[in-house]
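>> Question from a student workshop board

For tomorrow's exercise we were told to take the sequence and the ligand below, predict the bound structure, and bring the output to class. My setup keeps failing. Could a helper post the expected result so I can at least see what it should look like? The ligand is zinc ion.
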Amino acid sequence: MEFHHYFKSRQGEMVNLLKELVNLESPSHDKKAVDACSDFIIKEFKKAGAKATRIPQKNIGDLYTVQYPGLKAKSKKEQILVLTHIDTVWPVGKIQNMPFYLSGSKIYGPGVLDMKAGLVMALMAVKTLHELNIEPQKNINVFINSAEETGDKASDEMIKKLSRKSACVLCLEPALPGGALKIQRKGRMVIKLDVSGKAAHAGTPEKGINAIVELMDQLGSLKKLRRTKGTTLNIGLINGGEKANIVAEKAFATLDIRFWTNVHRQKILEAFKQISPSIPGAKVRFSIESSTPPMEKTEVSSMLLSRIREIAQDTFKITLEAGKTGGGSDASIASSLGVPTVDGLGPDGEGIHADNEHLLLPSLVLRTALLTELFRQL
Ligand SMILES: [Zn+2]
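>> Workshop helper replied:
Here is what the output should look like for this input. Compare the format with yours to find the bug.
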C-alpha cells in the first residue's frame, strides 16, 4: 500500500474533519468548549477502532489518551507516544472574522495548523490501519493535551508518565516553514524580579531607598545574559512606585528568558542567584513563575530522526530536513527525560497564533501518509 496516493484519494474527508474541528472552537481557558471539541474527536477515534481513556480535569478541558494496539507488541515498553493538543490560542467567536476556508492549496482558520491538523493526521492514520487491517509494529498511544498553549501541571505530569513508558515520541506540531522537522527547541523561564526599598518624601530622597532605581540597575546588568549564544531576555512587564513625589518602595519586573541548553539554564540561574543590591539597604528577590526545559539534540533523538528520514526517503522519495526553533512544545518535556523524540511532524504552513494562520493541504496529505508509514514501520 502506497499511503501517499491513498490519502490523496481521502483528501476531501480530511478537509471535512478539519473543518469540523476548527469550527468547534477550543481556547485553552474555556473548559466547556474544549470538552465539546474533544468529544467530537474521541467519537471519531472510537469509530476507528481505538480505545479512549478520559482523565477528568476540574479547571482545564479533560485530558485523553487514545490507544490503538500494535498486534505484534510484546511488552508495555513497545509503545509509540503521539503528542497532540486540542486547545488553541483563539477565543470563541474568532471564527466569525477568521472563517475556515480553502484557497488554492491553502487552508485557513483559527487553530487549523496549531494543531487541529495534527489531530486529523492521528485520526486518519489510526482509521487507515483499522480499515485496511494493517498491524502497527508497536502500540500507539495518542495523548490529547487540553492546555498546551497555557501549560498545566496535570498535563505535564501525564506527558512525563506516558513518555517514560514509550519507546519513542512523535509530536505533531507544525513543521518548520518549508517542511523541516524539529529536533531542537529553546527552553523558557519566566522570572519575576521583586525589589523593595524604603518610601520617603521626594524632597528628601536620601531618607529613602528607591526600588525603581534599584530595579533599573538590576535589569541593566541582566542584559549580560544575552551574551550566551542564542539566549534571549525580554522584559515583558514592569511596575512599581506610587506617586511622583514619593520615593518608590516597591517595584517588580517579569522577564521571559529563552535558551538552547540546560547548561545555559544553569548559567542564567547562577546570574540571578548572584544578584546583590546596588543601593545599600535595597532588597532584591527573584522567583521562577514557570519553566519549560529545552529540547536538546540528544543522541537517541538523532537516531530516531535518522530512522524517520530513511523511511521518508525509501517510501516517499522525500528528503526531510531537521532544524531548530525558539518556541516550546510538549516535545521538550518528553525529550528532557531522555526519550527519543522528534517534533514538527505536522504539516507545513504559516501564521501560528496570527490572523493568517494556514496550512498547505498537500503537506497535510503527505504528512498523514508519513505518520501512517511510521506507525507501520517504527
Ligand atoms: Zn501547538
